[in-house]
Amino acid sequence: MTDKHTPGPWKPEGTLIWAPDAKANIAQVSELRTDDYVSFTTPSGSSPDFHEIVANARLIAAAPALLEALEETKSALNGVPCSCNDDRGCQRCHAGRKATDAIKAAK
């Protein structure tokens, strides 16, 4: 995939996630539990899930920084030799595989 995400940093503002450097709105988090089907419903401050919705916006806004940190961690792990003979049981190899999978999913 050659598409790239909007460069960070991304900032949460309530339920909105935006990229101030790019002057772009990234996303808005919807009300969590609306109906039996997926639809966007603008959350209100009186929603019983409002704090969870805002927390989701913070997590989404952190995505570019988390991806960068994971890429740096993966690079550092690659520079550390592993002495295991079976990567299925090695915590370092397991963490490296999970990092690789997460990076691929984000790109």
Order of strands across the biggest sheet? 1-2-3
Strand count, sense and barrel status of the largest sheet are: 3 strands, antiparallel
Shape: elongated
Instruction: Tell me the Rg in angstroms.
Output: 18 Å
The percent of residues in helical segments reads 40-55%
Mean pLDDT: 85
Compute the number of helices: 3
> Which spans have pLDDT < 50 for at least 5 consecutive residues?
none
Whole-Å distance between the termini?
7 Å
Strand content: 5-15%
Structure in a nutshell:
The protein has helices at 50-61, 63-78, 91-106, and strands at 11-13, 16-19, 24-28.
Q: Would you give an account of this structure?
A:
The chain has 107 residues and is an alpha+beta fold. The protein has two domains: 1-61, no CATH class; 64-107. The protein is built from three helices and three strands; from the N terminus they run E-E-E-H-H-H. It has helices at residues 50-61, 63-78, 91-106, and strands at residues 11-13, 16-19, 24-28. A hairpin with a 4-residue loop joins strand 2 (16-19) and strand 3. Helix 2 (63-78) crosses helix 3. The radius of gyration is 18 Å and the shape is elongated. 8% of the residues are buried. The model has no long low-confidence stretch (mean pLDDT 85).
Quick tags:
3 strands; 107 residues; alpha+beta; single chain
Show the helix and strand layout:
Blueprint (H helix, E strand, L loop, with lengths): L10 E3 L2 E4 L4 E5 L21 H12 L1 H16 L12 H16 L1
